[in-house]
Amino acid sequence: MKSHMPRQKLDQSGMVSIIVTMIMMVIMSLVILGFARVSRREMRQGLDRQLASQANYAAETGIDDARAYLASGLGLSSNAATACNEYPQAGRLTDTDITVGIDSVVTSCVLVTGAVNDLVYDSVGTNEEVLFPIRMESGNVDSFVIEWQDPGVAVPDFSQCESDPSGILDHMPRLADWQCPTAMLRVDMVPVTGSVSRSGLTSRSRGFVLLPSRTLQASSSPVNVDDGRIYRGLCQASASPKCRSAVISVSGSYGASQSAMYVRIRPLYRSAQLRISANSGQAMIGAQAVIDSTGRANDVLKRLVVRVPTCPSGIACGKRPANSALQLAETLCKQYGVIPAPTPTINVESSDAACQLP
Hints:
three-stranded antiparallel sheet, Jelly Rolls
C-alpha cells in the first residue's frame, strides 16, 4: 500500500504585504525623524533667542555700570579703551560685579573711550538743541567744523538749497517756503577760559546761522565768525550726502586759541544729525564717551556700542529741549489774564508799540 505525502503549494502571495509594510515603516521612520529634527531646531532657536535676550541684558548692564562709573567722577585707566575691565579702582566693573543671574550669563568685556575724535548727535529735532563743551585732550581749541544732514532723507536733492554765495538772507523764510532737504543751524559759542563772569560771557558770546548751500563762500580758509552773521555750509550729494561748514576759526574769532569752549546748536526747519570735529580731527575730552560692552550667555555673545554724555556734574549737556519754544523776527506783545477772579483782569503793556491795536 502506497502512502502519498501532500505536496506543499509554493506561492508569493505574502511578499507584497511584507514589502508594503517595510515601505510604510521606512516612510513613518523618515516622518518621525523629520519631526524630531524640526522639534530640535525649534528648541535650539528658542534657546538661542532666550540666550540672546540674556546676553543683551548683560551688555546693557555693562553700559549702565560704565555710565555710573563715569558719573561718579572716577577716572579711566590708560588702557580702558583697549583692555576689558581695566579700571583704576579695585572692585569696580569686574566680572564679579556685573554678573547677571547665573555664572553662565555675564558682561564679559567693557571698554570705555573717554577721548573721541568727533561728537555725534542723532536725530536732533527742531524743538531740541545740543549743548556740549569742546576741550582737547592735548592743547587748546583752535578751530572746529560742523557737519549735518537730515536723518530722514536718504538721497537729498540739494538743488533746492541756496546757491548764490553773495546773496543776503535778510529774513527767515516761512516753514512752507523752506524747500532745502536739510536744516538751517543756529550756533552759539562762548569760551570759558580763566575766570568766568556774566559780563564776560555776554561780551564773548558769538551767535550765528549756518545756511545750507550748493556753493561755499569764496575762501576755503578758516572763517572768523561775528555775532549775528549768516555763514554758508557746502551741501554735496556724494556717497555720504551731508552739509559741511567752513572751518570755524576760534583763534581768529577771539584773537587766540581757547582752552575750552561751550557750543550750542539748534536745527531750524528740519531735524538734523550732527557731527562736530575740532583741530582737524584731534581727540576731544569732556563731552562724550564711547562705551563698548559685550554680554555673554553660554555660547551666545551680544555687543553694544553707545555714546554717552560726560559733561561736568550739574551741567545738562547733550541733546535736550530747546530753551525757547517760539522765536520771532519782530517784537511780540504779551498779555496775561487772571480768570476766574472777582474782577477778570487782562493786562496789556500799553507802552510797547507792538501792543497798540491798529
